[in-house]
Structures are given as structure tokens and as C-alpha cells.
Amino acid sequence: DIQMTQSPSTLSASVGDRVTITCRASQSLSSWLAWYQQKPGKAPKLLIYDASNLDSGVPSRFSGDGYGTEFTLTISSLQPDDFATYYCQQYNDYFRTFGQGTKVEIK
Amino acid sequence: QLQLQESGPGLVKPSETLSLTCTVSGGSINSSNFYWGWIRQPPGKGLEWIGSIYYSGTAYYNPSLKSRVMISLDTSKNQFSLELSSVTAADTAVYFCARDVVTIFGRGNWFDPWGQGTPVTVSS
Q: Strand (E) positions, chain B?
């Protein structure tokens, strides 16, 4: 199976900060990667698919980049609603796997 | 707007079978553009894909769970279901159902939208 590793595990930031989360895969994914946002007690919400395509309705302050084994999710100006846990997920293989998550906390 | 809702017992005894149903509203599961999947999240931990099923009945599963999992669907009720046998405490988790979007590879890719999730505890 393809192992997904996110860094950092926890990120402390302030409103207005630019934050970047990294996701690394154990083998090449081409562009077959999605990002999700999850708030406590809620289901994950799709943010980005195909590494860089923003899902409908997702604010433009979110962006995704990367190819192969290294990917990033960037929030250009952190808003109060963005404090949550973020997960990457690969779909290069039928056996879909997720990163362990990155929690974005208020500094 | 497509919505998914999980239902089923919140408590299952060890060695028994966990059974959950996902009811889909606002759209049909009888579509060639989507699979329908189950994902779980143990308390305080990350996400694990369990398996997905196509409208034709074709299903595929997480290899680590394959021997214990069965996913089925009932197109007349617009529902799909999960059965996980021989459960242990390690199967305690919130279980989510989700639409599994098909683009490349002719199989599921990403999950959108998700149901709200249902907690299941395995305990005697």
C-alpha cells in the first residue's frame, strides 16, 4: 500500500497567516491526490482534487500544488473558520490511503 | 443536493457482525459516474478506507479488512450497506459513508460528499 506522510502534525498559526501543509507519498502519485478539511465532530469536506483543482464553493485562499511524491496545501490568509484538521488522500492505487492529518490550531 | 445518512447500532459485541446502512437522498446510486464507499475513523485517529461498491454490484475492499467485509446495495431503496464480521475493540470508530467519485482508472478516486458519520463501539 502507498504510505502518506503529512507534516507538520500540528501547526500553530494566527488569523491572517499564510500556512503550508506538506504531504509526501511513498511512491509516485502523478497528480492523483485530494485534500480534505475536518472539524471536530464533523465529516471531512473535500477541498482539492487532482492535486490542484479547487472543489466548487471552496474559498480561493486554499490552493494545492505538487506532483509525484510531494504535495502542498496552502492557505494564503488563515481565517477563523479554517482552524481544523487537514488530510491528504491518494487515489493512484485502488487501495486509497490517507495521511495522518495536520491540525491547524490558534496561536 | 446529494445527502448521505448512516444508520445502525451504536454498540456491537466482540466477535459479532457490525451492520450499517447508508441512505442516499437527492440523487440516485444507480449511476455509472460514482462508486459508494465506507470510511472509518477510530477515536482521535485518522481515516481508513474500508471499501466501495458500484451500481452494478462490483465491490472492492481494503486488503487488510477484505476477509471480514461485505458491502452491498439496494437500488430500490437507494441504499448501500456495510457488514464487518468478527469485530474487536479495534473496530471501534466513527463510520462514514461517502460518494466515491469516478474519473480516471474507472474506479473511485476521491470522496464527496460524506455522511455525518455514526459512532460504533465494540464492547461486551
A: 3-7, 11-12, 18-25, 34-41, 48-54, 59-61, 69-74, 79-84, 93-102, 108-114, 118-122
Per the CB < 8 Å rule, is B116 touching A43?
yes
What average pLDDT does range B54-62 have in this prediction? 94
Mutation target among A96, A97, A98 for the B interface, most CBs of B within 10 A: A96
Which grid cell is B13?
459485541
Q: What CA–CA distance (Å, rounded) separates B89 from B92?
A: 5
Q: How many CB pairs under 8 A join A and B?
A: 58
For A13-64, write each residue's pLDDT tens digit: 999 999 999 999 999 999 999 999 999 999 999 999 999 999 999 999 999 9
Task: With CB atoms and an 8 Å threshold, state whether B110 touches A89.
Answer: yes
Amino acid at B71: I
CB B41 within 8 A of CB B116: no
Q: Does A96 touch chain B (CB under 8 A)?
A: yes
